[in-house]
Amino acid sequence: MGVDGRLRAVVGLAQAMAAACAPRDSVRAAARGARLAMDGSFAAISAWERERGRLRVLVNEGELRAGEEEFPEDESYPVHDFPEITEFLHERWVGGGGPHAWVDSADGGRPGRRSAALRARGRGTCVVAPIVLSGRAWGELYVARNDGLPGFDDTDAEFATVLAAVVAAGLAQNERLEEARRLAFTDPLTGLANRRAVDMRLDGALEEHRRTGAVVSLVVCDLNGLKKVNDTLGHATGDRLLERFGSVLSLCGAMLAGALVARLGGDEFCLVSVGPSADEVVRVTEEVCARAASLELGEGVACGVASTGDPIGPVKSSRRLFRLADAAQYKAKAARSVGPVVAGRDTAVVRLADAAAREAPGERRRFRGRQQDL
């Protein structure tokens, strides 16, 4: 491949990574682009997990051998078997150099086990380039050719160094996008999901309910006594109460497979469940109430439950499910209930929610002043 061909290959690799919609797609595009650019038979990208002292393979691309999978669940190798990754910082970079790729072969004499690995898989030569993010060795790009094909040389190693830099830039961009996505759907104080994430989850859940009949349940929780804590002990203490309750809700939510736990804002939290029965959700909500009551701060929690597994009538949108759970939660709060109030098991709650919907169809709540209906 000439200079122009290699330039086109670099551009193609960068474009493919930029077009990827998920991290898995991005590393696959990186490995494939590098393999094609290097005229390789096989390519892999591995991450250095420092805390576990291993290189974990994220993707294998090209001609796979027995035991190799495109996206292996747990293909990893002790770093001491492939020590070069740890030597970049200590030997080359300390001396002012940059990360450079190197070539190895099945009959090569470099330390480590790459030569043996090449022979075992019927490959004759490989080039390995460090992937560096934020000045630290993140992992490596590995490209190999089958036995009998021309070996890689120093020029190929230089080109692999360039490709690894392009891969690193793509990975860094993906990490920034993933962080942006995480922040867009995460409550910054508690680390739980936020209202945007809840709306998206409920929309998908109700579509599944219409298609398969899956039970969809919503629990709305209003933390009692937060204003008193803020006024008497300060907002920092109030924030700790919110975090503590968020942890309680997260712990209990884990009892329901696939549940989403979120903070909607202020002192209001919720839990979305898809699949488990209404009875299971109510039992978990009772546990939430009991644990919240035992917190050192605050005055417990008021919880309302609305589930398609109960007789609440048709649920055509998430707004109705929210309105029912809100009405149940409001009744729990007004009655200072130690346990959850469940729409559908309390017909007054359903009447209240539907009456509020007729008066203000575009609003979640319109319950104050209607205590007589409860």
Order of helices and strands: HHEEEHEHEEHHEHHEEHEHEH
Tell me roughly what share of residues is in helical segments.
40-55%
Helix and strand content put the structural class at: alpha+beta
Form type: elongated
Q: What is the chains' assembly state?
A: single chain
Note the main sheet. Answer: 6 strands, antiparallel
Average pLDDT, to the nearest integer? 86
Contiguous low-pLDDT stretches (5 residues minimum) are: 368-374
List the strand order in the largest sheet.
Answer: 3-2-1-6-5-4
Distance between the termini: 78 Å
The total count of helices amounts to: 11
Secondary structure tally: strands: 11
- How much of the sequence lies in strands comes to 15-25%
Q: What's the Cα radius of gyration?
A: 28 Å
What can you tell me about this protein's structure?
The chain is α+β, with helices and mostly antiparallel strands. It has eleven helices and eleven strands. Helix 1 packs antiparallel against helix 2, helix 2 (23-37) runs antiparallel to helix 5 and helix 7 (226-233) packs antiparallel against helix 8. It has helices spanning 3-19, 23-37, 84-93, 114-120, 154-184, 195-212, 226-233, 235-253, 278-293, 318-334, 347-359; strands spanning 42-49, 54-62, 76-78, 102-105, 123-133, 136-146, 216-223, 260-265, 268-274, 301-307, 341-342. Helix content is 46%, strand content 20%. Strand 5 and strand 6 form a beta hairpin. The radius of gyration is 28 Å and the shape is elongated. The strands form two sheets. Strands 3-2-1-6-5-4 form a six-stranded antiparallel beta sheet, with helices on both faces. A five-stranded mixed beta sheet has the order 8-9-7-10-11, with helices on both faces.
